[in-house]
Design brief:
- The complex is a heterotrimer.
- By secondary structure, chain A is α/β, with parallel strands linked by helices.
- Chain A is built from nine helices and 13 strands.
- In chain A, the strands form three sheets. Chain A has a seven-stranded mixed β-sheet with strand order 1-13-12-4-11-10-9, sandwiched between helices. Chain A has a four-stranded antiparallel β-sheet with strand order 3-2-5-6, with helices on one face. A two-stranded antiparallel sheet of chain A has the order 7-8.
- In chain A, strand 2 and strand 3 form a beta hairpin.
- The longest helix of chain A has 16 residues.
- Chain B has one domain: Orthogonal Bundle (MetI-like fold), CATH 1.10.3720.10.
- Chain B is 83% helix and 0% strand.
- Chain B contains eight helices and no strands.
- Chain B is elongated.
- Chain C is an all-alpha fold.
- Chain C contains eight helices and no strands.
- In chain C, helix 1 packs across helix 4, helix 1 packs across helix 8 and helix 3 runs antiparallel to helix 4.
- The chains are: A alpha/beta, B mainly alpha, C mainly alpha.
Chain lengths: 274, 223, 220
């Protein structure tokens, strides 16, 4: 399967090292190969969108980055360091629970189903990580959490419980919760797919703001317009492999690969060549 | 430790005796279960009656039989009825006792089962012209019973173990026979261990069966 | 004054039965405490991912749950003495009911913990929590709300199960009723009266559990 690229991967000019490197990553679920030899570099500050039909492996790819799924083969490097495993004398060994936890704390993730903690208030949801994982003092945590909450536009909801919020509000809280750990990288797993259409915008706005502030973001999404607007590169996946990578304008309007074309014409309902 | 050597010498005889008790245990379990299954269904249906007095009676039955120990109920049936002239022998008394008690539990199991059938099903029934009675018999109950099978199975396994309580009214089940054996041999540790193993040997396979039933029914059909 | 009418009989029996009911309550409370602590240890051990320990815990649960509580009581009260350990009947009952209850309750905890949405664990992982922190701050607090009704129902069952301790001579309500029966030869009235006392103890608990279930279903 040839990979069509219309522009090489951007590399961070200051250090020359990508923030994320996926090297030969494969994932099998039993006999089913869901990811097949994925190679992908993401530069610092880059925004990458993953698009493709369901079952293409985009969510699995995302979850392999922070090792919520353990790759069957291949390796993930974050900031130059091997992620999710350790290398001992040329052998790759699993990490201890505490080491894995520490690594994961540098990557933030936003889920399709929000996964807010229902037994905690909004402010407590955001502050749980800094409080218990980073062991920061409570007053400081509360102040920072309140700031983050205001930043996502929900400053007045500090003491509300998740069930009292709308879907869009919950997702914004989820983003604030992830940001509270000061991650170097944010992963978005179909962050707006479970939302009513009129609530999607408020979440995309927060993501836009994050992008403007220079966060490195890897976004699995069905929102093609948003993907085109925000991404530095778009990755089209199908059947567990990367089919085409390119800058948004090219990929969305002049896709080179036939499968990209047929996916886009089905999704966008317009001819790709205009 | 001479007790153990003696025990292993008479082990086959002990096993035979306890197996005889096991027959009674199974009789109590199946008999009680049968009574409970039927009576429990009656009570569950009475609970849905439109007459408040009938409903109240059903609710009261369930509450009373679930808030009083089975042992007390057995005593009332065996000794109490005997006092007023109705002398039952231990096995029927046990079956009636566990049956009446079980009916309360099964009535609640049936109730959950019936309530878990989506309302859309009875609406579908009335929209094809079935009466409430027909809907219950042909549409609701079959689905309710399928859902109720694992809890009923669990109840049955529990009853197998609870039947040991019938030793108190001299029913010749496993625990009773074990106690007699001990009175003859004084090998209490060994024989009670053997007794426990027998119960475990009977109930564990049944529990596994019920768990498999649970897993299969969870995979079930939702249309 | 020897009683002749039923109310007089009841007046004679009631104080003794109520005193014995106090023992029943004490036995139930102690056994309950043993059971919920033991059950938590067993459940967490089984979920710990350490195969040997988890296997031992699983074995314990399967075996203990496979036998009637009465068998365990008999083993502890009649069997242990031949190994040198003699426990008084009340203590034997608490230990036996506690051990049996611990196995039963551990299954309730396990079901409650797995009922907590998988996404919760993943969310906790993505903010860098270890398994221990995840269990403590995210999973268990949610599991508690789920297990409260079944634990409540277990408590009611335990209150009734204390009656089997009468068969090892432990001093509680049913034993007292048996003694009175053999003294007055009026088992019907006496056992119905003792049943009523059990009912008075258990029914409020039962109503409480139902109320709890309703509140939790409307849920936070």
């Amino acid at each position: 399967m040839a990979v069509t690229t219309s522009q090489g991967g951007k590399e961070d000019l200051s250090t020359g090292l990508p923030l994320v490197r996926m090297s030969g990553v494969c994932k099998d679920f039993g006999p089913l190969r869901v990811l097949d030899s994925i190679n992908l570099d993401v530069a610092r500050g880059e925004k990458i969108s993953l698009i493709g039909p369901s079952g293409s492996g985009k969510t699995t790819l995302l979850r392999c980055i922070n090792h919520l799924e353990q790759p069957t083969a291949g390796h993930v490097y974050v900031d130059g360091k091997l992620f999710g495993e350790r290398q001992v004398d040329g052998r790759y060994l699993p990490l201890r629970d505490s080491e894995m936890a520490r690594m994961r704390s540098t990557i933030g993730m936003v889920f399709q189903s929000f996964n807010l903690f229902p037994h905690l208030t909004v402010l407590q949801n955001i502050g749980l990580g800094p409080l218990k994982v980073l062991r920061q003092p409570r007053r400081e945590v509360e102040a920072v959490s309140a700031e983050l909450l205001a930043k996502v536009g929900l400053g007045d909801k500090r003491d509300a419980f998740p069930e009292q919020l709308s879907g869009g509000q919950r997702q914004r809280v989820a983003i604030a919760r992830a940001l509270a750990m000061q991650p170097r990288l944010m992963l978005f797993d179909e962050a707006t797919s479970a939302l009513d259409p009129e609530l999607v915008g408020e979440v995309l706005n927060v993501m836009r703001q994050l992008a403007l502030e220079g966060m490195t973001m890897i976004i699995v999404t069905h929102e093609m317009g948003f993907a085109e607007e925000i991404s530095d590169r778009v990755v089209f996946m199908d059947k567990g492999a990367i089919v085409e990578i390119g800058d948004p304008k090219t990929l969305f309007h002049q896709p080179q690969n036939a499968r990209t074309q047929s996916f886009l014409s089905a999704v966008l309902q317009k001819k790709p060549f205009q | 430790m001479t007790g153990w050597r003696h025990f292993f010498a008479i082990l086959p005889d002990c096993i035979l005796v306890l197996l005889g008790g096991a027959v009674t245990t199974i009789e109590i379990t199946l008999g009680g279960l049968l009574v409970a299954l039927i009576l429990g269904l009656v009570i569950a249906l009475l609970r849905r009656s439109s007459f408040r007095a009938v409903t109240a009676l059903a609710v009261a039955y369930v509450e009373v039989f679930r808030c009083v120990p089975v042992l007390t109920q057995l005593f009332v049936i065996y000794f109490g009825l005997g006092q007023i002239g109705l002398r039952l022998s231990p096995l029927p008394a046990a079956i009636i006792g566990f049956g009446l008690n079980g009916a309360a539990y099964l009535a609640e199991i049936y109730r959950s089962g019936i309530e878990s059938v989506p309302r859309g099903q009875s609406e579908a029934g009335s929209s094809i012209g079935m009466t409430k009675h027909q809907t219950m018999v042909w549409i609701i109950l079959p689905q309710a019973i399928r859902v109720s099978l694992p809890p009923i199975g669990n109840y049955g396994v529990g009853l197998l173990k609870d039947s040991s309580i019938a030793v108190a009214i001299a029913a010749p089940e496993i625990t009773f026979d074990a106690t007699n054996l001990i009175n003859q041999t004084y090998l209490s540790t060994q024989i009670y261990l053997l007794m426990a193993l027998l119960y475990i040997g009977m109930s564990l396979p049944l529990s596994h069966l019920v768990r498999r039933l649970e897993r299969r029914s969870r995979r079930g059909v939702r249309a | 004054m020897t009683p002749t009418t039923l109310p007089q009989y009841v007046a004679t029996w009631l104080p003794e039965l109520i005193a014995a009911a106090g023992n029943t309550l004490r036995m139930a409370i102690f056994a309950f405490l043993v059971a919920i602590c033991l059950g938590l240890i067993l459940a967490l051990t089984r979920l710990s991912g350490r195969p040997i320990l988890a296997g031992i815990a699983a074995f314990y649960v399967e075996i203990i749950r496979g036998a009637p509580a009465l068998a365990l009581l008999f083993l502890i009260y009649f069997g242990l003495p031949s190994l040198g350990l003699v426990l008084p009947a009340f203590l034997a009952a608490v230990v036996g009911l506690g051990m049996n209850g611990g196995a039963y309750v551990s299954e309730i905890y396990r079901a409650g913990i797995s009922a907590v949405d998988r996404g919760q664990r993943e969310a906790a992982q993505t903010i860098g929590m270890t398994s221990g922190q995840t269990m403590r701050y995210v999973i268990l607090p949610q599991a508690v709300r789920i297990v409260l009704p079944p634990i409540g129902n277990y408590a009611i069952g335990l209150l009734k199960d204390t009656s089997v301790a009468s068969l090892i001579g432990a001093s509680e309500l049913t034993l007292r009723a048996r003694d009175l029966s053999s003294e007055y030869f009026m088992p019907m009235q006496i056992y119905i009266l003792s049943g009523a006392i059990y009912f008075i103890m258990a029914a409020p608990l039962s109503a409480g559990v139902r109320y709890l279930e309703r509140r939790l279903r409307q849920g936070r």
